[in-house]
Amino acid sequence: MGRYAVGDIHGQFDELRRVHALIAADRRRTGEDAPVVHLGDLVDRGPASREVIDYLRRGPTDGTRWITIRGNHDFMFRIFLDSPDMADPGLNPAYTWLHDRLGGRDTLASYWVDTSEDRPIPDIWAEA
């Protein structure tokens, strides 16, 4: 049995929907009943992390089996919600989730959190 693998979504909801449409078309064409595996990095960098998470949490509406695995960016999101000053132990300690290279500000903005550069991190965290 095969599997469809979708990785590094990074808040690109429209692209995720497009990929799911391609998978659905392939499943109809082949009769394949393979699950769709989302390989993590659901959030960050893209404009629609909230939509990606909501969509994946609702699950498939057509009976397709989905498996979703958390990636390092999703792990960083969880770390931030627990403690805004913590960093992923596998990264440079200066790279907290709100660092420009990680994309946390984009994720929070998709939840309507004000992530302005001049706003103190504790205020961003409290609103998140």
TrEMBL record:
Question: What Gene3D superfamilies does the annotation carry?
Answer: 3.60.21.10
The record lists the lineage as: Bacteria, Pseudomonadati, Pseudomonadota, Alphaproteobacteria, Rhodobacterales
Ranges for the Calcineurin-like phosphoesterase domain? Answer: 5-84
Which positions carry the signal peptide feature in this UniProt record?
A: none
Official protein name in the record: Serine/threonine protein phosphatase family protein
Q: Which InterPro entries match?
A: Ap4A_hydrolase (IPR050126), Calcineurin-like_PHP (IPR004843), Metallo-depent_PP-like (IPR029052)
* A GO molecular function held by the record: phosphatase activity
Q: What do the Gene Ontology cellular component annotations say?
A: cytoplasm
Q: Which Pfam families match?
A: Metallophos
**One of the protein's GO biological processes:** RNA decapping
